[in-house]
Design brief:
- The chain is of the alpha/beta class.
- It folds into two domains: 7-176, Vaccinia Virus protein VP39 (Rossmann fold, 3-Layer(aba) Sandwich), CATH 3.40.50; 182-232.
- It has nine helices and seven strands.
- It has helices spanning 7-13, 31-38, 52-64, 97-106, 108-111, 125-133, 168-172, 181-202, 208-232; strands spanning 21-25, 44-49, 71-75, 89-95, 116-121, 137-147, 150-159.
- A seven-stranded mixed β-sheet has the order 3-2-1-4-5-7-6, with helices on both faces.
- α2 (31-38) links the parallel β1 (21-25) and β2.
- α1 crosses α2 (31-38) and α4 (97-106) packs parallel to α6 (125-133).
- The protein is elongated and about 60 Å long.
- This is tRNA (Adenine22-N1)-methyltransferase.
Length: 233
Amino acid sequence: MQLKLTPRLKKITELIKQDSRVADIGTDHGYIPIYLLENKIPAYVIASDVNEGPLETAKKNIEAYGYANQAELRLGSGLETLQPGEVDTVIIAGMGGILITELLQVVPQVTKEIETFILQPMQAQQELRRYLANNGFTITQDLLVKEDTRIYEIIVVQKGEQVIEDEIYYEIGFHLKSNPKALAEEFLLGKMHAQKEIIASVERQNSPAAIEKHQECVKKVAKLEEALEWLRN
């Protein structure tokens, strides 16, 4: 039987190079390892999760698809389940951006040996990009994928120096134009709408914090409008 992935997970698998040694951190149902093995992409796969329940589910799914001898399952937190140099590609998908930054810091001897990280934060994307750009990583791809009504961000990272021309790139990504134009426009318009909603909620408040937040959001909307014009030209 052929496993069908959601658009978000499918996009992640498309980023895996042939014969990579892959670790899927927070594997949940084990769908990414199954799909990769089904399509004969990796040389080696580790599927890990911090919770026994999801890992047991992943084990059952992997066995059901006939890959019990080709995927290694490990119980533990983040990169602590790995040895230095054991894999070259790490996937961390479906977690918050703050948690991902924490996971990248726990075992530096493992982190520094990874060639490529494929990160898919569910929120705090700006904070994650800021951490990466200021801690010896370069973002090589910022990809958008729409699933139902939500646009997800996928960040591909390698070791290197990140050039930061403007703070707004932490918000919108460093490679927005590499995405389909209509999707990138929808992404920016969504961010502008969110900022305008915040402005509307604080503009009648007179506290120093509300005034500061209002000014911050107004500046961000202006930057997003500039980005939208740049995208359309």
